[in-house]
Design goal:
It contains 9 helices and 12 strands. It has 273 residues and is an alpha+beta fold. The protein folds into 2 domains: 2-157, Ribosomal Protein S5, domain 2 (2-Layer Sandwich); 166-272, Alpha-Beta Plaits, CATH 3.30.70. The strands form 3 sheets. A 4-stranded mixed β-sheet has the order 1-4-6-5. The chain has a 4-stranded antiparallel β-sheet with strand order 2-3-7-8. The chain is globular, with a radius of gyration of 19 Å.
Amino acid sequence: MISFPNCKINIGLHVINKRDDGFHTIETIFYPVPLFDMLEIVEIKNSKGTIDIKVEGLEIEGDQQNNIVVKAYDLLNKDFELGSIKCVLYKNIPIGGGLGGGSSDAAHALKMLNSIFNLKLSNEELKKCASKLGSDCAFFIDNIPSLATGKGELLKPIELNLKNYFLLIVKPNMHVSTQWAYSNVNVRNSAGISIAECIQQPISNWKNNIVNDFEQTVFKEFSEIETIKQKLYDEGALYASMSGSGSSVFGIFKEYPNKKGLTENYQTFVCKL
């Protein structure tokens, strides 16, 4: 079985407070984007309990057996004693850019394993499993525009259609540690105006009303990321923002965007939404 895990962008990201469990309460919009990895899973007949994984494409640091797809398999194997599988993961989504590529790989693996082994888990049950693997993993089960609250695992579908707009994603050659970003972000200590309300406005108004709270801290440490965001506005973006805690930046355009000055030094991706 082959699947194509997609990435997401965050449209706005409010960090509301730090919780007693050490996590943060957030509010954000997750929007699916057609930039894909490739994941193939094949069952090994008459064998149980092992996963053989090969990762190709973009390089992932660390032991392949610690990949989040392996963790997804192990999670289900504890309860269902799955048959053994061989797995090939081809990484194309930029790594460490706030695009959720790894979380998507894990969620798609859960869905594929559910189908291959006929586990008959509902989407709600799969979301509960996914939430154990990462705060944004559950989003990729339904994979529809959603308002995310809590740690990012509480999802509410929203009406948001960006069809016919163009999206330009720019991934600079730097990594912003998620742990560092959360440790240094200025929390709001109040929910304030919901992002869900702000997205009802025309996209041309989003620039002044929808913010990513991580930008203030990240831009001070990584000024190049702020420069990329301004470049997207200079090229005509209706709205531009860092995705998640970075380092990727995206712009939403009415017309096909000009990538001049970005392609030589950065990974770039353009799609029609």
